[in-house]
Design goal:
single chain; mainly beta; SH3 type barrels; Immunoglobulin-like; 5-stranded antiparallel β-sheet; 4-stranded antiparallel β-sheet; 1 helix; 21 strands; elongated
Length: 250
């Protein structure tokens, strides 16, 4: 699927580039929403890993979209009037929480933002509405009670109801371990066990510092977890989908 999208992008952008200085690009997601871009002759579409990267022009920030949530991409000579332009959108993880911040460029005839986030990049479990403050404004929201890998995007709503979407970004949120929960030995080189007064059966996920899942096991009280195949370094164990413990593999 990604190779097909790559080939379509290359062919259609090549044809559009001969005719116009800008190309209208619409990305349709599996949830039915559409994100529009105006790609200038100095901009480009390209792939890195499993992401589609959209650079509207040489001075703009790159929008990164996971190909797994893209249903189709369409191109046209008709340019889209964007509800608002973003200079920056980022997520800063904290203990069981995250700070989502962004800056606006132009906000002409603009009404509000809707911050959408959830555990699935194709479906959104939560949303928060934020009124527009005007062009060149800064925004920041603190989200609490979070854990695990989460996806975030901004829905931008114009005064006439038209909408556009920001890029989808993701971040791994870790939580400090509960007092009664621990892993031993830690550091470890071969096997580890979980010490808990109440834990019986659960799922244990181990992530590297980049938030990538490197091991997942079904765990029962008293069992051992083999980590001997993991390279030496720092990892984060997510236990029962909430508690996270720092693990050092020797």
């Amino acid at each position: 699927m990604r190779k097909i999208i790559q080939l379509a992008c290359m062919l259609l952008l090549a044809m559009a580039g001969e005719a116009v200085a800008q190309t209208g690009v619409k990305v349709t997601y599996y949830d039915g929403t559409i994100q529009s871009f105006n790609v200038a002759s100095s901009g480009k579409l390209f792939f890195a890993s499993d992401n589609l990267n959209v650079l509207p022009d040489a001075a703009a920030a790159t929008t990164v979209i996971p190909t797994s949530i893209i249903r189709k991409i369409t191109f046209s000579d008709s340019l889209t009037t964007l509800a608002a332009t973003l200079l920056n959108l980022k997520v800063t993880p904290n203990n069981c929480s995250a700070v989502v911040s962004w800056q606006s460029g132009s906000e002409q005839n603009f009404d509000h933002y809707e911050l959408q986030y959830g555990t699935d990049g194709a479906a959104w479990d939560h949303s928060l509405s934020v009124a527009g403050k005007g062009s060149n404004s800064s925004y920041s929201l603190v989200l609490t009670g979070l854990s695990g890998q989460l996806y975030y995007r901004l829905k931008m709503v114009d005064t006439d109801g038209r909408t556009t979407y920001s890029n989808v970004i993701t971040a791994q949120i870790y939580c400090t371990q509960h007092d009664e929960l621990s892993v031993y030995p830690n550091p470890a080189s071969g096997t580890i066990r979980i010490k808990s007064a109440s834990l019986i059966n659960t799922t244990v996920r181990i992530f590297n510092p980049n938030g990538q899942l490197v091991k997942q096991v079904k765990y029962s009280a008293g069992e051992s977890i083999d980590i001997s195949s993991l390279p030496s370094g720092v990892y984060f164990m997510q236990i029962d989908g909430s508690s996270t413990i720092k693990l050092i593999k020797q």
